[in-house]
Amino acid sequence: MTIILDGASLTIQSLIDITHHQAQIEISEEAFERLKSSRTLVFKLSESDVPIYGFTVGVGWNKDKKVFGRYFAEYNRNLIYAHCVSVGPYLKEEETRAVMVSRLNALLSGRTGIQLEVVEMYKAFLNAGIHPRIPSRGSVGEADIANLSHIGLAMLGEGEVDYKGRIVPAADALMAEGLKPVVLGPKDGLSIVSSSALAAGTGAIVLDQALKVVEIANAVYALSVEGLDGNITPLRPEPNMARGMPSQSACAAQLRGMLSGSYLEKKGISKTLQDPLSFRCVAGIHGAVLDAIEYVHRFLAIHLNATDDNPCIIPESEEIISCCNFEITNWVLGFEMLGQALAHLSRSACHRTIKLSDPYFTGLSRFLSPDEGVVQAFQTIQKPFTALDAEIRHLINPVSTDYYSVAGEIEDHATNAPFVVQKTAKIIDNLYYILGIEALHAAQAVDLRRVTAHGKGSKVLYESLRDAVPFLEQDRPLSYDIQKAYEVLTDSSLIESIRKTAGTLMPENW
Amino acid sequence: MTIILDGASLTIQSLIDITHHQAQIEISEEAFERLKSSRTLVFKLSESDVPIYGFTVGVGWNKDKKVFGRYFAEYNRNLIYAHCVSVGPYLKEEETRAVMVSRLNALLSGRTGIQLEVVEMYKAFLNAGIHPRIPSRGSVGEADIANLSHIGLAMLGEGEVDYKGRIVPAADALMAEGLKPVVLGPKDGLSIVSSSALAAGTGAIVLDQALKVVEIANAVYALSVEGLDGNITPLRPEPNMARGMPSQSACAAQLRGMLSGSYLEKKGISKTLQDPLSFRCVAGIHGAVLDAIEYVHRFLAIHLNATDDNPCIIPESEEIISCCNFEITNWVLGFEMLGQALAHLSRSACHRTIKLSDPYFTGLSRFLSPDEGVVQAFQTIQKPFTALDAEIRHLINPVSTDYYSVAGEIEDHATNAPFVVQKTAKIIDNLYYILGIEALHAAQAVDLRRVTAHGKGSKVLYESLRDAVPFLEQDRPLSYDIQKAYEVLTDSSLIESIRKTAGTLMPENW
Amino acid sequence: MTIILDGASLTIQSLIDITHHQAQIEISEEAFERLKSSRTLVFKLSESDVPIYGFTVGVGWNKDKKVFGRYFAEYNRNLIYAHCVSVGPYLKEEETRAVMVSRLNALLSGRTGIQLEVVEMYKAFLNAGIHPRIPSRGSVGEADIANLSHIGLAMLGEGEVDYKGRIVPAADALMAEGLKPVVLGPKDGLSIVSSSALAAGTGAIVLDQALKVVEIANAVYALSVEGLDGNITPLRPEPNMARGMPSQSACAAQLRGMLSGSYLEKKGISKTLQDPLSFRCVAGIHGAVLDAIEYVHRFLAIHLNATDDNPCIIPESEEIISCCNFEITNWVLGFEMLGQALAHLSRSACHRTIKLSDPYFTGLSRFLSPDEGVVQAFQTIQKPFTALDAEIRHLINPVSTDYYSVAGEIEDHATNAPFVVQKTAKIIDNLYYILGIEALHAAQAVDLRRVTAHGKGSKVLYESLRDAVPFLEQDRPLSYDIQKAYEVLTDSSLIESIRKTAGTLMPENW
Amino acid sequence: MTIILDGASLTIQSLIDITHHQAQIEISEEAFERLKSSRTLVFKLSESDVPIYGFTVGVGWNKDKKVFGRYFAEYNRNLIYAHCVSVGPYLKEEETRAVMVSRLNALLSGRTGIQLEVVEMYKAFLNAGIHPRIPSRGSVGEADIANLSHIGLAMLGEGEVDYKGRIVPAADALMAEGLKPVVLGPKDGLSIVSSSALAAGTGAIVLDQALKVVEIANAVYALSVEGLDGNITPLRPEPNMARGMPSQSACAAQLRGMLSGSYLEKKGISKTLQDPLSFRCVAGIHGAVLDAIEYVHRFLAIHLNATDDNPCIIPESEEIISCCNFEITNWVLGFEMLGQALAHLSRSACHRTIKLSDPYFTGLSRFLSPDEGVVQAFQTIQKPFTALDAEIRHLINPVSTDYYSVAGEIEDHATNAPFVVQKTAKIIDNLYYILGIEALHAAQAVDLRRVTAHGKGSKVLYESLRDAVPFLEQDRPLSYDIQKAYEVLTDSSLIESIRKTAGTLMPENW
């Protein structure tokens, strides 16, 4: 699989192909032409008297200090060194790849004037699997300069990289691949570091995970409502059309697909008339997550295909001008909102799971015990999932405004973007445990209820889960069951099967 | 001014005309026809055996209790009584109007089967200015039943209303207007209370305020950057187009409009090359607020023109079915995001104001004193605006997931929507103080700098402010100046002048 | 009643006597002697060359500017003006009194060198009831300089005061009382403003309210557990002694006092064996509030009787040295903890109230209806109290670390103390509504249960409540009942009766 | 080293000796006698008709189900199984030890009636180094039943343990040590799981770390103030005594000890008169941390030496009664407060570090560069430490009230204690990075200033740091320096040297 990067058409899907499925990349010719003419402009301007940030003058507070042409290589190397200030833990391989592809594609917009050898190095690193070790923390989310510098370090043949499964000196990996360290020229240091590629790259991965977890949650819901013997009329098209919220309608449609063929389809209005809101409102709640995903997607897709640094080359007028193109507040806040939407999804899952334990709502045994007086079954398991939900409640507290005024008070705005993205990833991870526990309950309930006519989607989930975790006949340590359920839900084969069977919520141009 | 409500075309603007400018309302004929046929269906179904929530059976946990036809009036009156449980303070007049118009327009979708006399009563209340006293707190944001009931109470001729500037018994106001109390029939109680009209109506007002505060903030920025003698190249179209974020470009465009004619237009790149981010990133930061506003607007506009209650009449199949159409999680989270975006706007305003006090950045005197050794000027004023910003930081903490499982554990999802809206209103109010203080600094700075060539927008603001607050020649108690600046900024004439002069950011179909 | 202030023995109780019960104050002779000798030292040092903060040099960033002796009056008046920067709403009368008495008592420690006429003015203002109008917001909690300045303004005969129930110019009130405006001398401005008296004074009031609300909550609990027909063995001394937590034991003891004579005393272990934790853990949860109160009290009592400003006179060595005696982080964090403890109290009250509505736990009717099919009773009331609890959940979010670096980056630490105190007050106010609703349930439950043998404390509460709110025989608008219950619980006569009947939790030296 | 456990005298220090330094334990004879007589009582009561929670009847919602004597072994084994529901990651070895010693010591109070063989097993596990694998998450902090069960599992010879550095089946480790799996009898299951030993044990470790980090922070401060050439008069005893806050005075005293001999001692009042508050207020801010530590310590010390479960044996009256002795809200809130206090410490460290980079405050070069135009030095490093501080700001958000009502609505109060403890540990870990970076600045500053006369404590720190990280002569990747500084600060030898040199803040009876 080969993906052509052109600075304009990178999608979440193609990014994931590169980061997770090792797709090879090419750079489009047009992009190369843009890079060349920008580089030419850089050299032209380097002889002018106009001060240009990070180029003919220093960066940050040091913008009042001139950088002389003869020191370009030294200055830019020092800039890389002085920016290598991030703190562990290191990024995972796919995250490092996402950072590199995000930075590379933005460079292809031709707005930085970076030298072509550096651009080629990104491509070489990605295609050869040379992954610089990047400590993940230390960016305040207004250009991830403290982290991206570690990519520059590796390109200089210094520091360490993760290469073919081992941690080796960057110089060794370069040599093994026949690559020569780059020699930085004017403006190259800043072009490497001045970007939000850490947040954007890891954000793209997390956004993809968020979409998947909604669809998995829909499948779990489908099994749960079967376990409850619940009322699925709220999923009918008519009331949802009357409401007019597109995402609610879309979720209801996927859920109808998942429940297609289920015994619940044949029931009229159930005797309970209305199930608890955690069941009844599923299309609206999961729809709110979808809306948040689409919000982030709208802006992140723009971000991945545009310059995100400062200053900006204006080819028409042959200028390099200061700007605020690293600004990402809109999509960072989108991630904060997404976290809150996922927290609603989480709470609903928790409440559904509690209901599935309760004979008043299910008509089944207490705690879904196969033998109430003897087997304690899901008696204590309400603690772990509510405890994990409490962590989610904590994670959704906002952090984007909690920055300092630094660099001689010049950098007095920030977003804490990488941490916001990381919080979202943690929310999703916890959610898989919570949904796993819900699925354990749902499967136990349908077994106790001897459901045979599953919906198409709930059947896929049920069978995958029962392959890994048998019916709870007697008490056994459940920590292991929880872990297995987590693994079933996060296995990529499940989401693929579900999408194949019941359709997907994936937005256009994903 | 008369506005025709039809259940489908209510905009923020027309709502504001009704709530703040006393526009009279009419109800479209089509809407009336829908209401009639729904009511007919209600009577038809009341004779069937199908249990219908809040109609032939009780509400909440009492959905297992049958409601007999002969008790419809008594049952529905009791339902209104039992739902009058909200807690003060009372809504303001314009808020009460917004709640009524929001509920009325949703009823016109014909999904509730409410009797026409009740619908007429909403219209009469709005047109005659009968405003039921509604205690504002007590809703968990999943249908504002505890508050909307107070409108029903007034329609029954009970409780109190605000009428022609006085608090009088509802019965007196009805009599004065020649209105008879309604006699509730089947399903009427639920149709009155089962709606998020409190959150939606007050939300519409707050959303309008949010848009205005961004534009005011742009005007204040324009004056500040003149006060700083700052660099406005980041507002040029080229770098913003390179970035491609529509809202950033839109803000930059309005700001260019505001600064059109300013002395800053003639300067090249300033000697400082790049101003602090609080100045440089204004288009991106204010753009993020705009994006959040558009997100809320998209869904709130749907909400205001669709059913938001349960159950839902499906005329095609002559059914009333349970659903989750009161679901509003998506736009409630939008308000939470909007609050966070406004917090960024606030912090930037604070940092700009600090910079305007600092000779290092302005080249002017310390604390903008007209006589440094003698006049202390804006020495201590940094405390109040940062203290108000700390309140904003506190207000943006999320609250939508903090609900209980109530009503016999059936209501296990909620949003705390009215409180979220109210938090946003408080953020905006604080912001006007913060921006007022920024404007005091900016005006002092341009005076010290003897700026004469203002931009078109900054000139409007400067002159309005200087009409109310003179140059700080000697120390004086500044609490009064702050209050006056707040009043200048919140006066509707200012936003009108600014929009007239420099264009508006108002989205389509507002 | 007359209270002698000496700078060393002010208690919460005596402060409340002054603020709420108009006790007159005297100043001890020893304190006067200290003031005199400090003032003498000030004049002595004013002739030396040693720079002294806010005295011979300016304040804040202006500490590098010399203040010349001949300008002392003008400089100090300007200092007062420039510090009048706080923002409304205005403090209430008792709060203003608390601020003045707090500041006055700290001045008596003789650490500021303030002139005696100013000290006399505090006393005159308190004794004559001249209350300067102080806008409440604008302090970052590191000396409330922006607010305390308004007291100085009134002493200068400027600004407005609240005097004998009317808002009048300060000059008029001074004249009416035969007082002459003060003429400020060296260091007086700073001595008036450099103090955390706003936070400390209002904090003392709030702390007293916190103690009362715990005791009221204990009384409400006692009535609730009677309504539940619950198990009171967890209140027995033995298990609490086994635990060894003093506050848990103290709460259990007060609760035993409240329940002394109750029908519950005669029951053995109830058939339910263990009540829900919201009932069972009451002594521990309320004990945690007590512990937080004692923590704040310990440090606030020190604060009220010591200098809280900078610089500090050292009489032994005849120096005035810079220090950090305005530091209050420890007790501000105590207030944050107290808020969280109260939130636990609130949640438990909410859960108890939900249980009292539930036949499964009470054996009574659903929603405590006197006639289940006909009267809806406390069906919807679960929304308001959980909504108010959600506000409390929001209020407990911390704010003390959210400050800026201001005043030329010199003031880079703060606490937001006044806002923290105000948050706590709001929590307590909401709590009274929540507890009021619990009390309504508890009273209804004991009536349905026909309890006659109340405990001593629950009887006091029951009778007070039933004087204001009758048994719910038929549905009626409950907003009014809620308001009445709130008034019963906040009326000072109730807490007095309860303390008289069942003892108090008031700590030593309160 | 051998420590005798008696249920009454376990201190933080002795716990650390057991957990970190492998001290062997013995059980006192008196404790054994108590255990025996409690066990006798259990058997006696097992024949009575009185229902006893978790003994003759089930736990949680199942308290309405009888447990018959002949099923005691099976019931209790099932109880262990059904409670093994916690979620990874696993506890670290020293944490597992802390959990076991905490549970064991509480059992020795003789309030549970556990069989002696189980008690012996705790001792054997600790002394032989058999460490059950305990997934760390899943407790809501109201008895850590979901986690402690895993200890029971290992005692049954099931599940896995960490033994001599390897993960092995529990059965293998038992066999290797000649231990036989326990056979559970009446009440044993509950006695193993019903305790907050996870939170208390790990909490004791974290509390010890909190104390250490304050003292390390004092040492870093001492070096920083030397780097600043700052004013240390605020540390003098006189102004601190005037204030009267014991913890502020204690910190000032330790700081004077650390700075004893420093060149700063000889200076009079510096020309800057007053340093920024981040420097000046150190004694008050660090004192606030100390106060929070003492608050937690007071209650945790009680907790570690008392029963923390339910029900409770009352030997005097031969009863087992339901109670709330697992209640820990007071000290959980103490940890929340401690986190907030540490956040203040963190922010001050960040602000001090910013100041050390700023020539305006230091008189040294910008970013402490040894050659301003050429070496960029600490230019970018302000991002990582403020980013880590933003994480701390996020971590201090409260979580203790965010619980559900579970177990058939009976468990409607909780504290999330283990997560609160874990948050505090994370705060401390981040703090060490932040302080490490401050120390790098401080050392660079004293080197640039050519300080030779260090204080006693600052000298210890300076030398330890310079052994690991040389002076920054030229730009180099600083991530490595940061990591080394972190290691220097967390190395136990440093805290020991500092305490030896300058005294300790360790409270009495630690």
TrEMBL record, chains A, B, C, D:
Give the signal peptide as a residue range, or say none if absent. Answer: none
Gene Ontology molecular function terms on file: ammonia-lyase activity
Q: What keywords does the record list, in alphabetical order?
A: Lyase
What's the superkingdom here?
A: Bacteria
Q: Does the keyword Transmembrane helix apply?
A: no
The record's PANTHER family line, in alphabetical order, gives:
HISTIDINE AMMONIA-LYASE
- Put simply, this protein is called Histidine ammonia-lyase
